[in-house]
Amino acid sequence: MKNNQELLEGNILKSLTTLAWPIIMANILQTAYQLIDTFWLGRLGANAVAAVSISFPILFLVLSLGAGLTLAGTVIVSQFKGAGNQKMINFAASQTVMVVLVVSALLAVIGFFLANPLMKLIGAGPEIFNDSVSYFQVSSWGFVFLFMFFVFQSLMRGIGNVLLPMYIVLGTVFLNLVLDPLFIFGYGSIPAYGVAGAAVASVITQGLSALAGLVILFRGKRGIKINIKDMLLKFEWVKRLFSLGIPSSLEQSSRAAAMTVMVMLVTSYGSEVVAAYGIGARILSLVIVPALGFAIATTTLVGQNIGAAKIKRAEKIGDLSSKIAFFGLTSVGLILFAFAETLTRFFVPNDPQVIQDGAKFIRIMAPSFGLLGVQQVLNGVFNGARFTQASMLISVFSMWVIRFPTAFILSSKTILGFEGIWWAFPISNLIAAIIAFVYYKTGYWKVRTIKNRRIWVEQGIR
């Protein structure tokens, strides 16, 4: 957004939608990486889809350990933007880029060498084990590229520049659409890599997007300029990034770990059920994109308004975001409920059992999507207020105290069988939304924000 005052004084709905729609589109396009992979791998059979599905939660777990740091960059930059401090925007961005670079390089090495034992731990069957390991190993090399683009994207969002990342993602997704079948099935001198080919295509496109993002940040013509001098890590700033980022990382990693143990429950029912779960999880990842888009827009808008000492306006933003997420995603859920079988057949056209099980999974989840949206946007409010611990606690409770135990009990102790795993999703969405909403309405996050802001000013952080 060219005029930053619009975020601080203009119409809230217009500000939210102006920020949110490019974020939503970028997230849809990023999710398209997985959907494109699933589409082409589905042509190899259910085992190929299962191999990627079983490794995806572990990949997400590893990625989430560093992804929280990019959110910390969004929060800090947004508040300095609201305070009108360009020098600190550039400095905070430079520190964030270097921290994320170091973390992502470590995770890439760890992920590559632990691929084999991780796939054994999660319970990959002999028919999909080798493919799942090779897919994970190739994907690990892309962690650095993926994180570098994520940090670029997060910093741009922090200052309200949401269109540029979307354009870059759009270009790389189109490229991935071409490269996926090329490396999966082979062509001419390019051999057919099978399941690993999907990962090769993604790593190439991730590398290009990371390069574009870093070039833009170093040139400094888009609202943020990083430089080598400011990238020399300073303990106080690293500490601040981790204090904000670790709760967010734990929130995301708790979700990923919960997805992992859910897969471990699913694997005991065979590769067809794993494939059905994988398709349902992909649909869920696509549906949650609008909620995440409004959550990130809410984080940016709340952060900038708090930086400008407009606490009441920040609360109005949270109220409106919650309503949009609830009614919007409930409508989307009803549409997906009606077309669940058609969607499942699109990914695995020749396996009737997978189609039936996947469609039922979608129908059971779909009515609760609005509740999931409420939880996400309220987490966005807490994050924008630098209260990332609240988001973490709500997510950990939802996943580990509600979803996994419910899935385990319903699937192993009742006649529902594996369908009990499906029912754990709407149950946990309902309880998490209630907890987040009640906590939001207590207003503690506002009291904490006012107190912390006073401390920051006294310390000269602004």
From TrEMBL:
The keyword Hydrolase does not apply. It is found in: Cell membrane. Keywords: Antiport, Cell membrane, Ion transport, Membrane, Transmembrane, Transmembrane helix, Transport. It is a multi-pass membrane protein. InterPro entries: MATE_fam (IPR002528), MATE_MdtK (IPR050222), MdtK-like (IPR048279). The chain crosses the membrane at residues 12-36, 48-77, 89-114, 134-152, 164-187, 193-218, 256-277, 283-303, 324-348, 360-378, 390-409, 421-440. It holds the Pfam family MatE. This is Multidrug-efflux transporter. It comes from Algoriphagus pacificus.
